[in-house]
Amino acid sequence: MTPSGGWGIIDCLVQGSNHTDTEGIGDRLRRLRLERNLSQRDLSGPGVSYAYISRIEAGARRPSVKALRVLAQKLGVTAQYLETGSQLDDTAARELRLSDLELRLRLEGEGATRELLEVLDDAVAHADLAAVVRARVALGADAASRNAHAETIDHLGHAIASELVTAVSRPDVYLMLGHAYAAAGTPRQAVELFDEGLAELAEKAPNDVATRIRFATYLSYALTDLGELQRAKAVVTEVTAGATELVDPYTRVRLYWSLGRISIEQAKPQAALANFRRAIALLEATEDALHLGRAHLACAEAAMIDPDGLDVAEQHLAEAERLLGTPGDTDDLAVIRRMQATCAIARGNYAGGLRLAEQGLALAEEFPNEAGQSWWAIADARAGLGEASADDAFRSSIELLRLHGTVRNYANVLRAYGRFLRDAGREHDALDIFEQAANVASNLQGELTSAER
């Protein structure tokens, strides 16, 4: 880290030796070496050559955490003292460094990954469990801000497994991890996590209604993805029954969003639109462009269920793109491009739809559910253009949505593939696919319209 980085804050907070105010790390290393009558070759060892030591003393290199530990051990001082001149022990030094890096993440939103990994390695090497968990949480939050869902799951999963992070002490960590599970196409793991969190909250924090509602709505999202619509609605109804006054607008937004998503899975576009529009009305009173843009995306999805809703869907998509901006969150942009592609295809613009769907697929690298839907749009566009490669695109979509998609999307892409096969004269194959789609749709545990049946 450069002198202008986070360690500058720590240097101001700690009281070191008489040399702390004027010595740099290279000066301190040279002084300690000479005081002990050691040459640069005497200090050298595997991974820390005398030439490397010479560059450190000259101020041309800053030593790695590993090099600091090796040099400090040979000099008989702590790595913390060698780096900063502070006499703090390693545990206190890690705590200060983590505080600094956490602050950087909050203020700058990025740029601390490498340093956090160094602290994590150091904490693991010294069996400092509290620092390990704290570094994992910070790394998970950093990964979540980059939509790196696999990294988020790895770090936050380890943090929760330590039992130092609980739903009561850190509900934000549970919610962040659950969102990553869902975005990575593993909603069943999200359900298990939120069930666990709700049980803990009911036992240890029964009066924390706002947090319980947040967990319940996130649980309902995951249940909706799995097609468990009756339970999804029951969870939301149950948790709000004891809430006499929901003054927090974001709490109400989450509830409307949850009810809207359930209505989409039930193929009830008007009910979904009504709930999403209530969410939009609340969000318009804020300056939250991100969530307002996502609410317009949800409205577009609901409108597209209605055969006559194409104009409405395109209006919401235009507003979503305006609010979310370019460049923006890649997951959001992937959804926008895929939905724009679907609208273009519905209007017979297959070439334009194909181009948009391919853009959406490129943006959905860590979003397998969305990638599956992008492949579906690509398949529809290729079929409209008469391209035989539509078959491969359908198969790619089906495989991704089978593993990561909602029950409704998986059933519907099977139906679309069945229609493609039937139109291609492959009646026997089409019948098999239609039968498979019917079996999948039967897993939707909620009231369905005749159209969805």
The gyration radius over C-alpha positions equals 28 Å
CATH hierarchy class name of the domain at 7-88: Mainly Alpha
**Strand count:** 0
Rounded mean pLDDT score: 85
Question: Which shape, going by the Cα principal axes?
Answer: elongated
Largest β-sheet summary = none
CATH topology name of the domain at 7-88? 434 Repressor (Amino-terminal Domain)
Percent of residues in helices? over 70%
Number of helices: 24
Features:
434 Repressor (Amino-terminal Domain), 453 residues, disordered C terminus, elongated
In short:
The chain has 453 residues and is mainly alpha-helical. The chain has 24 helices and no strands.
Describe this structure in words.
47% of the residues are buried. The protein is built from 24 helices and no strands. The longest helix is centred in the N-terminal third of the chain and has 19 residues, at 90-108. The protein is mainly alpha-helical and 453 residues long. It has a domain at 7-88: lambda repressor-like DNA-binding domains (434 Repressor (Amino-terminal Domain)), CATH 1.10.260.40. It has helices spanning 7-13, 25-35, 40-43, 50-57, 65-75, 79-84, 90-108, 113-125, 129-145, 149-161, 171-183, 187-204, 209-225, 229-241, 249-265, 269-283, 289-305, 310-324, 330-346, 350-363, 368-384, 390-404, 407-423, 427-441.
